Here is the input.
Amino acid sequence: MSETPDSTAPRYEDDIYEEAANWHVNTGEEKIHAKRVTGKWRKIKWITHSIWLILFIGPYIRWNGRQAVLFDIPNRQFHIFDITILPQDVWMLALVLLFFAMLLAAVTSIAGRVYCGFFCFQTAWTDVFTWLEEKIEGPPAKRRKLEEGPWNSEKARKLGLKWFIWFLISVLTGISFVAWFTDAYQLWHDLLTGQASTTAYGVIALFTAGTMVLAGKLREQACFWLCPYARIQGVMYDKETILPTYDFNRGEPRGRLKKGKVPEGQGDCIDCKQCVAVCPTGIDIRMGQQEGCITCSLCIDACDAVMEKIGKPKGLIRYASLDEMEGKHQLPLWKRPRPLIYITILTLALGGIFYGITHLGTIELKVLHERAPLYVQLSDGSIQNKYRIKILNKTDKDFHVKMSAEGIAGMELKGAEKPLFARKGSDSSYTLYIKAPADAIKAERTPIIFKAVGIEDPTQQATYESMFFAPR
Ligand code: SF4
Ligand code: SF4
Here is the structure.
């Protein structure tokens, strides 16, 4: 006999519809004024954000009388301490980009949007801007009141001061960005004397406006609407990815404290909404994982503080995977194909970068054998081959090199009797000849090693293997 459905029991669809009705994503209609919270993750966030200080300090570090890191676009050279990267080495740049893309993918598949919450420049600048906002306008309630209230002298003074300080930070951001592409001290001199290039002024203006709009005005909306990474992060997750997660089993049914205690039969969530109040993107993590979560972990700090106050164990909101929440066994990292693939690719890219850096000399030698004719026989019976030599000087100083070649007994290198000049940051080409006695040549093709050694600095060396051709 079939059972008669209980018409008073809540149906699955009802739950779904209720959840949908309560579901809320702030799509820009309201400005988020998040409460600032203290705690472990807040401290970590400041530390990771401070990595961006390098943007402001980096260009002023000198190395061997030059800017330590300089992206010299006009001369098509990148200087990183002792290393100079020329367009010929651009494959290394591709590997660096691949490395960072795979690092981002690997970290996302392991621990979600860690980059967004802790390292992203948008999050970092917004954090600094909202910190200043709180210092000037006060806590969230006061800020909302000021925002909704009529214009008066206090509102004008506070908003004026806030935007002025934001403007100064934004200008400094623009100048600091440009300083990586030109001599930083010279740039300041040119800016202060009004002699900087139109490009410099244009880029600084662009960055100033961009910083003010993104960090001051758009804030978390930039993450929602503009960031492509926010759109694709979902494909990098799996059920083992750990994310800030509300422990539904422990927290529900939620309810308010009664007489300072959690009533019998109630979950540990006391519905204080502190996790929502501190969220910079204004979401309620208790509704489950959401697109707007930048995994900043501030809701963990907020909830831990609440749990401490009510004498419950911390971790009602914590880093956990979907599998952990469902009581399943968490797979070890080495059994998870997705992060493993990302880690393999990034390791290969890292290997390539390491190879590139350790094999990047200050001098590069290329030898092209002239093919028409392959060889000539001279009147004394000896055989002569012609070569086009290219010496690439990767330094920012001119120097001279001594050329030599070996491979055949008694051979003679002609055209390099005097040191050859190598122009800084470019190729210098020369035509050289090798003349070898006929009786010393044992084969139709004989390998020849060309070697260039710096005169001013003999540690500058490069070799190239070419061929010597002779009749059968
Ligand atoms: S902070 Fe913790 S206790 Fe308060 S509403 Fe959020 S999850 Fe519940
Ligand atoms: S839900 Fe928590 S982790 Fe996610 S953005 Fe909000 S505060 Fe940060």
Summary: The pocket of iron/sulfur cluster (ligand 2) is lined by residues 244, 278-281, 283, 285, 293-299 (CB under 6 Å).
